[in-house]
UniProtKB/TrEMBL annotation:
Any one GO BP annotation for this protein: DNA-templated transcription
UniProt xrefs under InterPro entries: Sec_Metabolite_Reg (IPR050613), XnlR_reg_dom (IPR007219)
CDD domains assigned: fungal_TF_MHR
Signal peptide: none
PANTHER family per UniProt: UNCHARACTERIZED TRANSCRIPTIONAL REGULATORY PROTEIN, ZN(II)2CYS6 TRANSCRIPTION FACTOR (EUROFUNG)
Keyword Nucleotide-binding carried by entry: no
Subcellular location: Nucleus
GO MF terms, alphabetically ordered: DNA binding; zinc ion binding
Name of the protein in question: Xylanolytic transcriptional activator regulatory domain-containing protein
Ranges where the Xylanolytic transcriptional activator regulatory domain occurs: 78-220
Pfam families hit by this protein: Fungal_trans
Main location group: nucleus
Length: 531
């Protein structure tokens, strides 16, 4: 073992490099970077500053170099706080306004960590809430400035605004990048340690802090295992209902008012169950008898969703605000993902109930994404919420596609095949593939791999007799769309049958009981908690 060895569990994509290499031998599309262990990271300058490989600039240089005129900053801050689906609940609008006014009176006297929050707000607004013509350099500079201020303020020490500034920096990266990065995991790991050392994982009733501070702590997401924290769910309050001078908090507002905090509280309840699901699926000896109980617990939380958060077709949402549309999608995607992660390990074991649940949830996730996709384009119902198509949601989309492929392949030669409709499923996967092709140049190389796998699926299972009109040529698209020679056609068969040039060279995907390669897309990545 070398000093460079890094252990990756079975749910991490790098653990499947051998399978990826075998896929390169069978798929006609070559990826020159498939052997690269590294993943695309965040903007190099910002991360290098945070982790100390690049020295930070003095605060006065940061402000002189990166801070726009006040009128420009005013517009970005206003856009951020108007976007309820994006604005972080742990940033109190009234408190922020007071600090913001003081900042412009004497910028150099403001806490560097609070200034980092301001730059992250500008980063989110410039990248996701303003016209897409905004220069890319302008977007990146706010991230770099936020990183400088984090380093200047020594974010790694327990101090005021350390948690909020670092978390908002991570959230900004998740909302503005097209690929999930391992750098986010490192930042969140540091964040959890810091928050734990500051007691954020305990409800602060016994502590001598104000009601305002207690409530704002409760608005932060949990990042530790359930048995080790006891923080209460925050009340459903508008920021105008309380501030730093409040001696006690008013009662929660009715859920019918549709406060964005209802979404965060709902997500919190889902994540409590999801944490149990993760512990079950990541266990070295999972107990199958727990599956039904966890499934019931997840469905029970979903059953009590407020009506306005329940999913609706886009055609039935024409009078709803865009932020409510994406909130519903966030809730339903999380619900589908929780159940799919729970049941996926049992699909290959031919557990009928798990096959049905995994098929229903993965197809619903993919279908909802495909149906909503073009509404985020200019002129669509949700064009102002284009951030929703960022890395986390796209990762969920790939997740759903791979889970759907897994179910189809698992049931293709079994009596369980009646659970799924192959024609309908291939049609849905074809629509999803078309979106991937449209986005391929803007996305992580994972998207190219998914396209290859879905094309192989169509080649293997799609025939002129089984496909609907308009899709009957999809079965041969791997041959016609790609200039594939006879040996490449044989290679496609090898992908599924485990043979190449008449030899038992590979274990075909359809016969691989572990389906290791799919683990990359079904990995239990807690980074998605920021979505």
């Amino acid at each position: 073992m070398t000093n460079d060895f890094v252990y990756s569990g079975s749910t991490h994509w790098s653990a499947m490099l051998e399978d990826i290499q075998e896929l390169r031998m069978t798929l006609p599309i070559e990826d020159d970077h498939a052997d690269d262990l590294s993943t695309e990271g965040l903007d190099g300058a910002g991360v290098d500053i945070i982790f100390g490989s690049t020295p930070s600039l003095p605060l006065e240089h940061v402000l002189a170099r990166f801070l726009p005129q006040r009128t420009e900053v005013d517009r970005m801050v206003s856009a951020y706080f108007r976007a309820q689906a994006v604005a972080a609940p742990f940033i109190h609008a009234t408190q922020f306004r007071r600090f913001y006014q003081q900042f412009w009176e004497n910028p150099l006297h403001a806490p560097p960590l609070w200034i980092s929050i301001l730059f992250s707000v500008c980063h989110i607004a410039a990248s996701t809430l303003r016209p897409s013509t905004t220069e890319e350099v302008e977007k990146i500079r706010f991230s770099v400035a936020a990183a400088h201020c984090l380093a200047i303020g020594q974010y790694f020490r327990p101090r005021r605004f350390a948690i909020e500034s670092l978390l908002l920096f991570a959230q900004a990266e998740c909302l503005t990048t097209t690929a999930l990065s391992s750098d986010i995991g490192a930042i969140l790991g540091l964040l959890v340690r810091l928050a734990t050392s500051m007691g954020y994982h305990r409800d602060p009733e016994p502590l001598l802090i104000s009601p305002f501070e207690k409530e704002m702590r409760r608005r932060l997401p949990s990042g530790v295992q359930f048995p080790t924290w006891d923080t209460k769910i925050p009340r459903v309050l508008q920021d105008s209902d309380f501030d730093e001078t409040s001696t006690e908090l008013p009662p929660s507002r009715p859920e019918l008012e549709g406060s964005h905090l209802i979404f965060y509280n709902t997500k919190h309840k889902f994540m409590v169950v999801f944490e149990k699901i993760l512990r079950h699926t990541l266990s070295t000896q999972p107990n199958e008898s727990e599956v039904a109980a966890l499934d019931s617990e997840m469905r029970a939380e979903y059953a009590v969703l407020p009506e306005f958060l329940r999913p609706r077709p886009m055609s039935d949402s024409v009078v709803d605000p865009a932020n409510l549309i994406v909130t519903r999608l966030c809730v339903s995607f999380l619900y589908y993902k929780c159940l799919c992660v729970l049941h996926r390990p049992y699909v290959m074991l031919q557990r009928k109930e798990s096959i049905m649940v995994c098929y229903d949830t993965s197809s619903s996730l993919v279908r909802d994404f495909v149906d909503a996709y073009y509404e985020f384009k200019p002129g669509g119902q949700a064009e102002t919420e284009r951030w929703f198509l960022s890395s986390i949601t796209w990762h969920d989309f790939l997740f759903g596609m791979m889970a759907l492929c897994l179910v189809v392949c698992t049931t293709s030669h079994e009596s369980a095949a009646s659970i799924t409709g192959i024609d309908t499923t291939l049609a849905l996967l074809t629509r999803a593939r078309d979106l991937c092709i449209e986005q391929e140049s803007n996305r992580h190389k994972d998207t190219r791999r998914v396209i290859s796998l879905v094309e192989a699926m169509i080649y293997r299972f799609g025939t002129a007799n089984s496909l609907p009109v308009g899709l009957s040529t999809a079965a041969s698209s791997a041959q016609s769309a790609w200039p594939m020679e006879a040996d490449e056609s044989t290679a496609y068969a090898a992908l599924w049958d485990g043979t190449e040039n008449g030899e038992e060279a590979l274990t075909g995907l359809a016969q691989d009981p572990s389906w290791d390669y799919f683990e990359q897309f079904l990995e239990l990545d807690m980074t998605s908690n920021l979505s």
